[in-house]
Amino acid sequence: MAAFTLAELADKLGAELRGEGSVEVHSIASMSKAGEGQITFLSDSKYRKLLADCNASAVMLREGDVEHFQGNALIVKDPYLSYALVAQLLDSTPAAATDIATSAYVDPTAVLGKNVAIGHHAVIEAGAQIGDNVQIGAGCFIGKNARIGAGTKLWANVTIYHEVVLGEQCLVQSSTVIGADGFGYANDKGEWVKIPQVGTVRIGNRVEIGACTTIDRGALDDTIIEDNVIIDNQMQIAHNVQIGYGTAMAGGTIVAGSTKIGKYCIIGGASVLNGHIEIADGVTITGMGMVMRSIEEKGMFSSGIPLQPNKEWRKTAARVMKIDEMNKRLKSVEKKLAEKGE
Questions:
Q1: Which of 26, 120, 162, 239 is catalytic?
Q2: Three-state SS for 210?
Q3: Contact 303, 321 (CB under 8 A)
Q4: Distance (Å, rounded) from C-alpha 95 to C-alpha 118?
Q5: Sign of the C-alpha dihedral computed for residues 290, 286, 237 and 264 taken in this order
C-alpha cells in the first residue's frame, strides 16, 4: 500500500501545508468517514459544516475554508483536482494482467514491446503490434494488424478488431468492442445487402472508454477519436463518427453515423445525436438531449420534458397532442385580426 507524508503531497500538488508535514496518509475517504491515516477534501463550501467533526489526518481545501478546520490542511486552488491527483498517487487498483499467461495465445508474427502483460485466454492475432508496458486482461481479443500504444490498459474481455489503432496511455474497461462493423446496408427490393465496412477506428492518446461500449469501424473512411477524450459506459459510437480533443460523453449516449463532434464538448447521459451533423467546439448537451440538427455555436443546449408528477405529466402530454389543432386555431384568429386591421 502506497503512503505519503503531507510534506511530500504538498510538494507534488504545489500546495501550502498547514500542520505537521511528517504525518503519513495511505488512502482517501469522504469527510464523514475519513479517519487516521486518511486524507479528504472540501471542494464545495456548502459542506463546510462537516469539517467540525472530520477525523481525517488532513483535508485538502481552499484558503477561504481553512479557518473552519483546526487539523492538518493542504491549501490548494482546486480541491477536486487535487483529490484526483492524490487518488492517482494512492491508487490501489490491481493490474489488468501480470506477465504473459500460459493459456494466452500470441501469434508468432505479433510484435510485443517490453513488459507487456497478457491475461489468461487472451488472443493476439497475426501482425498485431503491442507497445511497451501494455496490460491486456483475461479473455481479450486483439485482431489482425491492430496496434496498441505504450502504457495502454485493457480490462477483461475487451475486443479490438482487425486494423484498429489505439493510442498510448489509454484505458478501456471490460467488454467494450472497438472496430465492429458499422450499420451499413443497401436495400434491394426489400432485401438487405450488407456493405463491407473497410475503414477502421483510430483512437488517440489518453483516451478512456467505459464498460460495454461499442465503437464501430468506418464504412470507407475511419472512425476517429482524438486525444484526451473520455467516453462512459454502454455507449454506441457509429461508423465514421469523429470526436474532438478533450470531449466528455456520459453513459448511454448514442451517436449516429458520420456525426462530427468538436473539441471540449460535454454530452450528458442518454443523449441521442442524429447522423451526418456537426457539433461545434465547446458545446454542452444536457442529459437526454435529442440532437437532430447541427449546432454551429458553443453554448448549452437541452431538450425533453423534465420529470413531473404523473398527474401533471398526463395533462402536459394531452396538451402536447393538441398542439397542431391549437396552432391552426391561433393562425385562424391571427388571420381574422389582420383582416380587421387589428
A1: 239
A2: coil
A3: no
A4: 10
A5: positive
Contact criterion met (CB below 8 Å) for 262 and 277: no
What are the residue ranges spanned by the domains of the chain? 4-89, 105-301, 310-340
Instruction: Calculate the alpha carbon distances from 217 to 54, 206, 265, 281, 284 in Å.
Output: 50, 20, 22, 24, 26
Fold of 4-89: 3.40.1390
DSSP code of residue 219 = S
262 Cβ neighbours under 8 A, 6+ residues apart: 244, 247, 278, 279, 280, 281, 282, 283
* Nine-digit cell string for 172: 478501456
Residue 256: what residue type? A
Please state the CATH superfamily assignment of the domain spanning residues 105-301 in this structure: Hexapeptide repeat proteins (2.160.10.10)
Cα–Cα distances in Å, from 143 out to 111, 123, 235? 13, 8, 21
Residue 68, burial from CB neighbour count under 10 angstroms (0-12, 13-18, 19+) = middle
4-89 and 105-301 have identical folds: no
What is the distance between the alpha carbons of residues 9 and 323, in angstroms, rounded to a whole number?
60
- Cβ 259 vs Cβ 241: under 8 Å: yes
- The answer to whether residue 239 is catalytic is yes
Q: Each residue's pLDDT tens digit in the chain (342 positions)?
A: 789 999 999 999 999 999 999 999 999 999 999 999 999 999 999 999 999 999 999 999 999 999 999 999 999 999 999 999 999 999 999 999 999 999 999 999 999 999 999 999 999 999 999 999 999 999 999 999 999 999 999 999 999 999 999 999 999 999 999 999 999 999 999 999 999 999 999 999 999 999 999 999 999 999 999 999 999 999 999 999 999 999 999 999 999 999 999 999 999 999 999 999 999 999 999 999 999 999 999 999 999 878 899 999 999 999 989 999 999 999 999 998 988 876
Any idea which residue has 463546510 for its cell?
A: 48
